[in-house]
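User: Thanks for the earlier help. One more: Outer membrane lipoprotein-sorting protein. Can you show the sequence and predicted structure together?

Assistant: Of course, both are below.
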Amino acid sequence: MLRTLCSGLVGWLAFSISAAAAPKMHTVALGPARRVADVATEIAHKNKGNSSATLRIRALTVDGILREWTTGNQHSVTERSFVSRRVLRVNDALPGDTAVRWVWLPGSWILVDRISGRVTPLHLPDFDSSLSEVVWYRDYAAYCGVHTAGKGAGVTAQVWQIGARRAALSRVIAGWSQAERVRPLCATPVWQREPMRITMQAAGGDAISYEVVGTSMQLVEDGEGADDDN
């Protein structure tokens, strides 16, 4: 009797430990795309002054609960993780307006883990949500940013690596006039695989190629927990 009881207790403990160690699975989904018309002035200007410009958005849900609104294409970094650009609904009413005026405005990028359901904001240096366009390769984000502080102000060529949490490239490539806010800042960045190289071209400037020296991918894709900052 005692042996049977001990065997049962050992089996129960082994099952409990196994259940506790197994990660909880989550369901991450992107809803159908729809277009919204109430966009911020920056987006209308970006579409050549078209005041009726629209924005294509999709809902990002985790376990059926809305976590973010996203826009643009997603990029799979690994089979488990992908990046997407969030879009915010911002109150655009002036102080003298009698009612709120909700508009849609693209924001920063997020990293989404399909298994843990974790959504991590990505803090890309010099990224301007109304001017910068990111082109992804592996876990590298290439884009033109705007640096406004100090003597190094100007349009910057940026390559940011998610896994290393640092810039693999950060160079001022053109001047910047806050009054002009030229759109676009740059031509679309062009990636090359071997050797890993990025070609950037500021508006009105010459194309410049840089070899990108980063680190091997070291994304941490395990564990549960609250949303993290990167």
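User: Great, one quick takeaway?

Assistant: Helices lie at 2-21, 41-46.
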